[in-house]
Design goal:
single chain; about 230 residues; mainly beta; Thrombin, subunit H; 2 domains; six-stranded mixed β-barrel; six-stranded antiparallel barrel; about 0% helix; disordered N terminus
């Protein structure tokens, strides 16, 4: 099981004005209902400051995210304990709550046994919740999983609460960016990826991308979850 995506970026890490996300806000909620905010068990100073990564709802008690999101950085296979992690569902805003927002505790983490921080291969993890998500077709829904591979040229959308530019702040409201799946040969021109990974970008604007804090979130193609991005 290995569904990784390497998202291309084109810019200097030392240039804080370079937009990484280049995203937009959507008035509709047709994709928002599939994503969750993976967080620490409690916020530090204010609500929402504990956001770690994104995740996707694939079952009433199952969240799919990236393994490196719940693994202590640079320490191979040294996972966070399940009670250190929670997920927030039903809210588009990171820093505020409404009647649909729920914070759910994680009972177990099940990360791929072959995941390593060195290569980020097999960067996938299941979060098993203590209680069921209040599923509906408006603010929380299960996303379909594909039975075939995504083809190069496919139009997809990724979304998250990651940084709005390199070293920049996290947004309060969920942001979206539209990307196209590339061939691995095309991606290798700009970055290195492994053969088991795929990559996506916008060939007309390389500033449109995911960033820190978007990890673990979905790349949605034809209303199906094809990959979680790193």
């Amino acid at each position: 099981m290995n569904n990784d995506v390497a998202i291309l970026a084109n810019g200097s890490q030392d240039n804080d004005t370079y937009l990484i996300t280049g995203g937009y806000r959507r008035p509709d909620m047709d994709l928002f209902k599939y994503i969750v905010s993976v967080r620490k068990s409690n916020y530090d100073v204010y609500y929402g400051d504990d956001h770690i990564c994104g995740g996707s709802i694939i079952g009433s008690r199952l969240i799919l995210t990236a393994a490196h999101c719940v693994c202590k950085r640079f320490v191979n296979k040294n996972k966070w304990r399940a009670y250190d992690v929670s997920v927030v569902v039903g809210g588009r805003r990171r820093m505020s709550r409404n009647k649909d927002t729920a914070r759910l505790s994680v009972q177990k983490t099940r990360c791929h046994e072959n995941f390593t921080m060195e290569t980020l291969l097999f960067d996938i993890c299941l979060l098993i919740l203590y209680e069921d998500i209040n599923l509906n077709d408006r603010t929380a829904a299960i996303i379909k999983l594909p039975v075939t591979s995504v083809l190069p040229g496919t139009y997809c959308t990724t979304l998250g609460w990651g940084r709005m530019y390199e070293h920049g702040p996290l947004p309060d409201e969920l942001l979206y960016v539209d990307l196209f799946v590339n061939t691995n040969e095309t991606c290798m021109i700009r970055t290195y990826i492994f053969y088991k990974q795929i990559c996506a970008n916008n060939p007309e604007d390389f500033e449109r991308d995911s960033c820190v804090g978007d990890s673990g979130g979905p790349l949605i193609c034809n209303i199906m979850l094809f990959v979680i991005h790193i």
